[in-house]
Specification:
It is built from nine helices and 18 strands. It is 31% helix and 18% strand. The strands form six sheets. It has a four-stranded antiparallel beta sheet. The two termini are 21 Å apart. Helix 6 crosses helix 9. By secondary structure, it is of the alpha+beta class.
Length: 422
């Protein structure tokens, strides 16, 4: 039995009850593909914006307007007989060839522009509210309509044949305005998060010695002694590493709840993401796996590969299973604090040295054997270590808070996209 197609969304603004109208995109707008241009024709700083697929590298669709890295001058336009695209209302641009299609990223443009031949634009006609249209394109997931072959691609007719449901203009405006405000809030939180990360990067540069130096540029008052150079494992009592261990090798399996497994996918920089690659073990699996090596609050976790170098700390004493591509360090308390170690592993010099010691092609990895060759420079005074560790721990907590807020906003937007469009 065929399901009757819905003609209105499940969540609407008060006062709107009429069915939405089904239209092909080609009936209410038009597509236009880009042009080829050589490297020598790129790099202008003013003129008509020239967009390429690389301009879509920033993830997500929250950035409303495209930011151009290249411009074409009037003389270039004339010499090459290029005709800029002139949207009457505005247009959405997206990748039309290659793997970039599957990133499903769109950007909106409302001034004259050029795009390269790996991109396509869809120009809204005057019946669209531009922000409603931009948000509808986010909901569409254009990658579903790509011609899949050796090189996935769209052509104009592929896009123009897509059927969409569209409300009257006043409802479009209500929806568009709401999503524009939501995107502005998301962008604001993203900027705050980016600023905090840049501040942390700056402090890491200044609060740890550079190569060949024994003192950092920036220190807490009351500390003036040189730092000491030593081998990494001189400060480590033991390393907990269950490389290769899986539930099946223990004759068991994951559960729907219980003790969270910590892997290279959910150990992020500065925090644990319980939603990423979430696997759980029951009491029996936890005891069999972790017996005698239980993780304690504050212990430093380090991802050894894919990705290499993420650092977080065990957040509490609730019990966790140490899983794939992640190790935990137990420090010698009289030589190094956990909080300081967590920061030290992310300091520029140590991270660069770790990268130099790592092996592998695309997915770099570092082993315990290679860690034996790692030299570190640390303050002998444990009080100085504690101050540095506490400072960065507070900063990391603030970054994690903003990250959670941002993730929540994006999840809310995803929910609204599902409920406010047909």
């Amino acid at each position: 039995m065929q399901t009757k197609k819905r003609k209105s969304p499940s969540l609407r603004f008060r006062g709107y009850t009429d069915d939405w109208e089904e239209r092909k995109l080609g009936e209410v707008g038009k597509t236009k593909s880009g042009i080829g241009f050589s490297d020598a024709q790129q790099g202008g700083k003013q003129g008509t914006p020239f967009y390429k697929v690389s301009d879509m590298n920033n993830p997500g669709n929250e950035v409303v307007m495209m930011n151009a890295n290249n411009y074409a001058s009037d003389s270039q336009l004339k010499e090459n007989k290029w005709n800029p695209i002139n949207p009457q209302n505005s247009g959405v641009v997206f990748a039309k060839v290659g793997a970039a299609i599957f990133l499903d990223r769109k950007r909106i443009v409302d001034t004259s522009f050029l795009i390269d031949n790996n991109m396509m634009s869809y120009l809204f006609d005057s019946s669209w509210n531009r922000y409603f249209g931009k948000t509808l394109f986010e909901k569409l997931r254009l990658s579903r309509f790509a011609q899949v072959g050796a090189l996935p691609s769209f052509n104009g007719s592929d896009v123009e044949d897509i059927k969409v449901m569209i409300p009257e203009e006043s409802e479009q405006k209500m929806i568009g305005d709401m999503f524009e405000k939501l995107d502005d809030i998301i962008a604001l939180h993203q900027r705050k998060l980016d600023l905090l990360k840049e501040q942390k990067k700056g402090f890491l540069q200044k609060m740890f010695p550079k190569n060949g130096s024994r003192v950092p540029e920036l220190r807490f008052s009351g500390f003036a002694d040189d730092w000491e150079e030593r081998k990494f494992f001189e400060s480590i009592a033991s390393t907990i590493d269950f490389r290769g261990r899986t539930p099946k090798k223990l004759g068991m399996d994951w559960s729907d709840s219980g003790y969270l497994a910590l892997s290279a996918l959910n150990v992020k920089n500065g925090y644990i993401d319980p939603l990423a690659d979430a696997h759980y073990g029951d009491e029996k699996l936890y005891r069999k796996w972790m017996s005698g090596r239980e993780l304690k609050k504050g212990q430093v976790l380090f991802t050894t590969e894919a990705p290499m170098g993420n650092v977080a700390q065990v957040p509490d004493d609730n019990g966790y299973i140490l899983s794939q591509r992640t190790v935990a360090f137990e420090t010698k308390e009289d030589m190094m604090t956990n909080d300081f170690l967590a920061v030290l592993l992310k300091s520029p010099l140590v991270f660069n040295n770790l990268s130099a010691l790592s092996s592998g092609g695309t997915a770099k990895g570092v082993s315990q054997k290679s860690l034996k060759g790692l030299s570190i420079t640390v303050p002998l005074d444990i009080d100085e270590q504690q101050k540095i560790g506490s400072f960065f721990k507070h900063l990391d907590d603030t970054i994690a808070l903003h990250q959670r807020k941002l993730d929540l906003l994006k999840e809310q937007k995803k929910g609204f996209l599902q409920k406010m469009f047909v």
